[in-house]
Amino acid sequence: MLSDFPLFPEAASSVAKYVDGLYLALILLTGTVSLLIWAAIFYLAIKYRRRPDNELAQEQEPPAALEMTWIVVPTIIFLAIFVAGAWVYFRIQRVPTNALEVYATGRQWMWKFQHTTGQREINTLHVPVNRPVKITMASEDVIHSLWFPAFRVKNDVLPNRYRTLWFQATKTGRFHIFCAEYCGTLHSGMIGWVEVMEPTEYQKWLAGGSEGSLATQGEQLFQKLACATCHTNDATGRGPVLAGIVGKQVPLADGHSVIADDNYLRESILNPTAKVAAGFQPIMPAFQGQVSEEDLIRLIAFVKTMQPATNVAPPQQPRNP
Amino acid sequence: MTTTTIDDAPFIEPSATAPRNYLNDEYGVLSWLLTRDHKRIAVLYAISVTVFFMVGGIIAFMMRLELLTPEGDLFTSDTYNKLFTLHGIVMIFFFLIPAIPAVLGNFILPIMLGAKDLAFPKINLLSWYIYMIGGSFGIYVIITGGVDTGWTFYTPFSTQYSNTHVFAVTLGAFITGFSSILTGLNFLVTIHRMRAPGLTWFRLPLFVWSMYATSVVIMLATPVLAITLVLLMVERTLHVGIFDPALGGDPVLYQHMFWFYSHPAVYIMILPGMAVISECVAAFTRKKIFGYKFVAFSSLAIAFLGFLVWAHHLFVAGISIYSAMVFSFLSMIVAVPSAIKVFNWTATMYRASVSWQTPMLYVLGFIGLFTIGGVTGLFLAALGIDVHVHDSYFVVAHFHYIMVGGTIMAYLAGIHYWWPKITGRMYPEWWARLSALLVFVGFNLTFFPQFLVGYVGMPRRYHAYAPEFQVLNVLSTAGATILAAGYLLPMIYLFWSLKFGRKAGTNPWGAVGLEWATSSPPPKENFHETPVVTWEAYDYPAFLKAMRETQHG
Predict the structure, then answer these.
(1) Which pTM does this prediction carry?
(2) For chain A, where do the domains classified as CATH 1.10.760.10 start and end?
(3) How far apart are CA A207 and CA B395, in angstroms?
(4) Which residues of A touch B468 (CB under 8 A)?
(5) In this predicted model, what pLDDT tens digit does every residue of A103-160 receive, in sequence order?
(6) Looking at the complex, does the CB of residue B350 fall below 8 Å from at least one CB of chain A?
(7) Residue B139: other Cβ atoms inside 10 A
(8) CATH architecture assigned to A100-207
(9) Residues 150-189 of chain B whose Cβ lies under 8 A from any Cβ of chain A
(10) CA dist., res. B65 & res. B83, Å (int)
């Protein structure tokens, strides 16, 4: 019966116990306070109800010290709730470094997932149990929001940059995926299932066919889009050397610098003139509207795997203009 | 302490009502449509907001019917999306924001100040016409096919993807904003310039303090909404890239701008509710509000802090961890002044003379429900919980506890409290108590299950939902049926009372305040001679003495 009518969601991730713990603690705390206030209202309303002998109130006040008490005490309690909330939030936000990478693309009205091994799935996501999984996600159209209620995490999926969320599933099974940000006609149909599997099962699933790893798919695109014409691997090209660039500080033409993360790579493909690397001309064509979100993911996956041509990796030498 | 009891107070006797009052001073449709009397304008507003409340309520009921079953089987997805969008737009822009300020504030505020009218009577009439023009855009959109963006108009959905009447409805909201601004301006100038002799700031009824705070928020926040909606309309029609990334814009910028207005707008909706509650608590306990200055200044604190918490709507929308921390912290702080008010209202009942008449029943309901609405706000302000419940039914339940359990309960309290003053007639007490009970029970049954279903995982704005959410949704729809009955009853018996209600007399409640020192309904100029205020707010003995001297002297 309870499974037909749950009052509490299944808890299937490593952070769920913190979120639920805080939730239950707050219910206990605020429930007690609310009940006390309700009790006070009832008590006072009944005890001092209007009768012939108290047509006018007795002008007698509760002690004034009460006022300071109920300013100071709630403030302290509220700040404690803030601290506890932030503590849990850090656990939700800080991505473990060893996380398995998965990519998600939201579009009206489906979720598309890509694994680094090349598997693609729609509205279903296979992940192994007891291993952190980091999802990097973007939208092809409007804002969506990827929500795993059983994992207690969600994050909005934006059309102009990558956002991430992570979880570590602690139970095998099938759990809901919902879109939480209203996105048009079939918003309530933009749902799916995450399948949490035993590691061995997951390996078996991965072994099932794919079109080659994401990086391989990206390499083909890299050739097809003629990226290699300028982005050569030996610092002689008209564009920066991409091998080993990921995670590095890139000096920009305007004197600033930027970390070459997923978002920078994405922006540099779609709109290359936004942040031009120092020493290079803004000659790269914009690929906005030319490369789909899924192809972007493939390209970036390839860039991440690019190896420098020689042992001595030349950090991009600015060519003399 | 005086030995006076309420029984020998002169004003309690039904006074020989002045033959002329604002209602029978002039006749004819034009005497209403061209009136500059703040009381008649309040009545015009009362009729208009009631119509919009019924429209928004019927739409809400249609949504609850759809949600009886998990499948989306009563309406199409597009229709359902239009229903929740229109419900939000109609209820917020055309009911909740104007309801208490433009109806009760318009009627009572000048009388409370001992003034003949608001500072700018023609601008007051203009604000009603602007409201009606904005509202007619809303009606036009409903008739011609609706809009499906959600009341929040998030970009880029609203600017590039929706093919419904986004332009017309945002133009309507834009226009209606000016009616709020003019009302706020009118109130501010009136409170500063037109107080009766002797009515110093700290003798003002708390209603006035709260309306003052509301007006400040209206004046500062509404222009931001206007700017935001203009930018949205420009992007939608001229394809100038502001919010749409395909045009080089930033969709999260829209959310910042929208909530920079719309979070303070929550306080535009609830501060007037608090204004009514303070009056009713004093009147139905026959006592000074405990901690008058704390309650007064907490209104101003809410108005100020309300501007600093907008990004708590964006915790998962793409703001940095550290700005999330700042906004979480500030959201906790903004809860403090609301808590102060709740405690002070409750403490006022200590050694009071608590009447159980209908307005007080609504007040007690308000305090209880506003408490739940407030503490669930703490859940949402706590970052770790918000990540899970953001955009779920938990949020829907939370803001309905504030907006419906808070503002609408307060509005009904105020309507019942001042009904005898506005119409000169008493409403039927038994029926009114019944409706207060129905509203309370129906409200809780409707919205409490939504907290639970939200935490379990049901997202908001879902036309169809997972089957395990059904039981809680059925409870919610059952509650909505009771709530609907609770709202229909007052519409019937209040209308009935216009002709058949008992004559009210000047001060049927034995309450303190200038509005209870003039006849019911008040004469066109409110007072035959300018009153002189010699008493503190809610000072029963002093007020009784002053009234006796006026009557005999």
Answers:
(1) 0.92
(2) 214-305
(3) 42
(4) 3-6
(5) 999 999 999 999 998 889 999 999 999 999 999 999 999 999 999 999 999 999 999 8
(6) yes
(7) 16
(8) Sandwich (2.60)
(9) 150, 154, 156-157, 161-162
(10) 12
